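Hi U.,

Before I forget, here's the chain from the pilot set. I'm dumping it here mostly so it's searchable later in email.
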Amino acid sequence: YVDPSVFYGVMRNYMLGWKDNPFMPKGLVYEGVQTEPIEYSGTTAAQSSVLQCFDELLGVKHEEKSCAFLTCMRSYMPPAHRKLIQDISVQPSLRDFVQQQANEYLNKAFDVCVSKLLAFRSYHINVVSRFITVPAARARQLRKNSHDSEGEIVSRAPTSLEERGTGGSGIMTFLKTVRDKTKDGFLPQTSK
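Structure:
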């Protein structure tokens, strides 16, 4: 229910981390806790253990760069969640099991699961577009046209973070790559 301009220009700034953030290239010092700067990524859906569990369970294999980012985001999860994902990943493949059964109904049920994960990822792209990409384009347009953007909330967001997610990823490239690799999770069609 948040206005996209408010999310982009105000709230998002508080969700950004200080890892891969050009405004804090060395991280953040927690005075009284540690003397060296610490780097943390901002909040991101990649930190969701649910999504990563489904990827492992359904056998969704991501490209190397995306996989590295997702694996790194596991360090932000509760230890039991990380362990669950790891445990699922070392078990025999559910996808292989379903294929070995040669059961049309089981195959369809599996593909429905993949389609639901795919639908979620497509929805996520739409939300990111609405709350980040479109407001970023508006902010760029305001700057380009030299309008007085002081009253515009979108102008409060740092320009260097326009194409980045709150977790530090190149947002649309990452999201589309992850979504497209999810499509590879569908079982191959067999002739009847």
